[in-house]
User: Fold F-box domain-containing protein from Candolleomyces aberdarensis.
Amino acid sequence: MSLRAGGKVGPPQSRTGAHSTTPSDMPGDLPAELWLRIVDLIPDDHYASLFWVNRAFYQLATERKYRHLVLDDDRPSAVLAKLERIDLETSQFAIPEDVTLADRLLAGLSGLQNVNELAIEWMMASTPEISFCFPLLTALFQSLGQQLTTLTLRMGLDQLCQLAENGPVLGSLQELSLHIGRSELSEIRPEDAIQNQEKLASFINGLSPTLRKLSLSSSDHVRLEPPYLDLVFLPHLRSLAFHLPFDSYHIANPRGLNAFLKLHTGISELSLIPCHCCKRPPKSQVMDTDEWLQEVFSGVDFEELRTLELGLNTLGGDSRVPPVARSIGTVASNLSSLTITGVLTSVEDLDAILRPFTKNGNSPPKKVVLEVHVLSRQVLETILKTLPNLETLDLTYRWGFFVQDLEDGHHPLYS
Assistant:
């Protein structure tokens, strides 16, 4: 096993004090082999204060900080006690099955008593991988599941549901992130897809006693209707994220989603980033967008919502401001912070997103984070007129038309 710490290596920065931070090469320096012995006796967390001693020591300290560290058997108990997170990703290269190695890996991981976070990525699963990889992941899941508080699964819906169905009871899990990807397996029958989604809902429902954060994401053509119909009330849920296709084509029946949102109006954090994954069918084949949105948010009032992340369409093929972004503001009555993810290209789009937060007697956000392609006087005026009580504006821009007007750090609309 290898661990890698990445960073930018450069000369030490100057600092005041009794010592200079420039490594010295004094004639009285000890031989390099002695410095090597000294380095082995110094804990890693002391390097930051000692790297300035001399050039040789600086090079050794930098190497220790940024090199690949190989974990050997010198002090395995000390290493295992500090390990809290495991990430598993699929290899890009086909390798022979090694059952002995898998057994040794599972035996070693079974002794990790302090691991509370597990992330598994298995995208584009192919048939030859199933017979070996699935039992291995299931055994790993069974071994670590009882102590997990955070779980991230990035895989096809069929593999995800099989793993969840064969997994242990996750009695301590608080954060669940599911990214539903595409599979290279043969096309799944519609009835099997519905059954898989029902299993997914059952898995999430089983976490209701402890789950506080739920994230569902996908950039593929996945229609998730049954889960919303089958999900129960998650009493401790405070953070919710939807990063997936969010329209009348992929969620044809909005009643299930509406029921789920009504049950969880007490959330304090919401991340809504609709994804455009495919060309929509003719309007005659799907529900009207405005009618669909009205049903989705009917009776929904996020009174406790304080933080909202709202995503723009950055993939092309559709409007840059998704329809849901023009509606969510009407049901967020007491928002504190709004973050718009993506680059706004027009004042009209900016106004379309911000104005709904001022309707229906809502309290507009006091903090806004956004990025615009071109900073102009119209952009600032739109923000300040729409949100007159704004306290914090985190604004990123790529081009500016009137930078000279802002050199003194003051704009006429600011009081």
